[in-house]
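Appendix C. Worked example: Acyl-CoA dehydrogenase family protein
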Amino acid sequence: MSASSKQPAHQPAKLPSFDPRDPLGVDDLLAPEDLAVRDTVRAWAADRVLPYIADWYEKGELPGIRELARELGSIGALGMSLEGYGCAGASAVQYGLACLELEAADSGIRSLVSVQGSLAMYAIRKYGSEEQKRHWLPSMASGETIGCFGLTEPDHGSDPAAMRTYAKKDGTDWVLSGRKMWITNGSVAGVAVVWARTDEGIRGFAVPTDSPGFSAPEIRHKWSLRASVTSELVMDDVRLPADAVLPGVTGLKGPLSCLSHARYGIVWGAMGAARSSFEAALEYAKTREQFGKPIGGFQLTQAKLADMALELHKGILLAHHLGRRMDAGTLRPEQVSFGKLNNVREAIDICRTARTILGANGISLEYPVMRHATNLESVLTYEGTVEMHQLVLGKALTGLDAFR
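Step 2, the predicted output written as structure tokens:
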């Protein structure tokens, strides 16, 4: 029998068509329940955020945040990867897909969910007493109670070990004093998870925000994350009972583990902002005509679109890989730094390139591109700056600590 007449043992299935929105076929890696979570969050964002977000951003406000929080609770998006106490118990991949869809709408909406679930609720679930978990988590999962997370201070961002916020014992009570800065959800929160120095080391406290001496003035005049509530936390001799302290941890490993969980969500979320900007540029390139044809027909525009698609879908694959590792219990903090550093940096670049394709229209709020680009400038900084994640990876690669 000639070589040309040989037939393969199994005829290959017909190749699927090329999908510009999913060029690598990543959806094939997702289970039906994963797709259901993604589609639920995408539909909610399309209905409740996208029609209004440009106006919210322009006005620098997030009206109806309490109602939005309750709606997010009703679809299981708050603390969704946590188990029990009214939480959805979703997989890490499902949580990541939710973050991607939320940030495709706006980084401020994803930040609301991340701070609620991955910081405040995660801290209470992991380090709180059984009484604290029962008291706070069900109402936080439903969105009835909004939480915030107080770690960053006006003079201490990347170096939280130098924090000045202090809690001292007074009999069986604690007296908490200090300031925290750039706190998402702060002025609408019912509970603040605040980290403070004590004679025992750094401890976390679940602080009811109606406590005397506690205030949370909102921060204005932002050019990024404008559709988000950002506040300062001021604690002026806030007296707390003994059971306000989170008993499960002492030291920086407490807040840092929470940050690692939140950073994981950012790995996915940043790709949502990038996807939104890429899709806007792609559609624009197919309809905007110059020199007698759509600009998408010019080589330089196609080169930009190809490079954007490469980085976008490589980032989604990276996020998916990290999600599977988290679900398997094998995800290391250094790997989260890998994802956060790469995906946010590439997402900003995608947004900036998309803006060039849209030309002057790229700065208009009629399109999402500039809004995503300015939001990502904050995402690039919070939960660890570029430099801090570079040093985390540098230490992991060399075994040498360059932080100090």
